[in-house]
Amino acid sequence: MIVDHHPEELWSIEKPQLPKRSRLYHLPPVGIGTPFIESLTSYIARLAESHSVLPSVLISKEITPYLKKVFAKRLSSRRLRALFDRARALNGTGDIAMDFVQALETLTLRSDLCFLTLHSCASVIPPRGLFRPYKAWCPACYQKWRLSRQVVYEPLLWVIETIKVCPQHQQPLCLYCPHCHKQPPLLEWHSRSGYCSICGKWLGSVFDSFACSTLSPEDLKKEIWVADSIGELITAVHSLSSPLLRENVAKGMCAAINLATKGNIAAFASLLGIPKNTLWMWHTGKALPQLNALLRICYRLEISLLDFLTPEKMVAKSLKLSLQESTQRSHNKRVSPKPFDSDRVEEALQATLASDEKPPLTMKEVAERLEYNRRTISQHFPDLCRAISAKSLRYRKAAQEKKIEQSCEQVRQIALKLHIENVYPSEGRVSQLMTKPGDLRTKKVRATLQELQSELSR
């Protein structure tokens, strides 16, 4: 039996609705909603690798056109090097981080890349000293991901300066490559997650005591708490019912002072070793404490960073009773000042001046060892103190000059190598091959390159 269909039932002349296409791969970030969420610098390196291009090419050719004009000018071909030198800002709380996030979300059609930065914490955490300029990594994590064929990446936790250990493997993060013993930059023109950007070797298979710092059991316990506390905050920020506001820090500080010392600011400051004026600025909201100071307070109070920044939770908790007790004892018991031992101090100063210890101690370090105020020592022995300070200053200047000379020599070798290969030794090409590209901003190092460019072009 044949059934005739009307042509309109078989064919439709309406144009189908196609979903919008992204210019770059819709690459999902790793660890969304966990303490081990990926950093934006790691995402850029992985996105470049997924397109079989270098991060420098991805940024200059694809991302730059979508940036705001103020940043696009800075990211010209001559100044791309400057971006890599301050790549930590891409994971941060400022405008450049959000500019890159918005550009990448436009290119990939993703809507979750803002969580790869700490921009959601911009109101409660000041940017100063927040991120490290070089890589830090857990070799056990790298090796585990590689062996289980998981994505190798760099968590946001690892780029935060305060984080010293991996909370999963409870071991210190590595800062130096175990192969070349150098510090790989956070993001380079040819960066690849899990590999050293200087020597190109895998960072997960070797655990070297030189590459990783060592911590005492007590310090390790504290650093694990720090990592867990920051990880909890990173996990929670995108699911909080209300955003973190600057006033939360002041409210949290007021709640802590009220609960721990019954509103006595001076007692609270004395207990935690914080200047009273500084604490007053924090609790009135006139200034924000840096992340490490905030964590130190939370650790002493035995509350998490997230609870501190959500004061309604902290009020419901009971802080350490020993905190109030020790404060009361400190007010009831006056401690007599330590008597100044003139002979001992003079002997120690002379020994410091004659010592071959390198680097030489500064007067601040000498005063800390002697457990006296630096000003008090200077009042008694001004000449010896000036001599110790001058010795330390001479050493630092000589070390800086040696570092600059080494960079000049490296620039010479790189420029000559490029010249032999019939490649013009431009500032951009030379900086890409330098161990520490930022040294090219030094006046003497740049002058060395300019002289070589003139000589080689004759």
UniProtKB/TrEMBL annotation:
Residues 266-308 form the HTH cro/C1-type domain. Pfam families: TniQ (PF06527). InterPro entries: Cro/C1-type_HTH, Lambda_DNA-bd_dom_sf, TniQ. This is TniQ family protein. It comes from Funiculus sociatus GB2-A5.
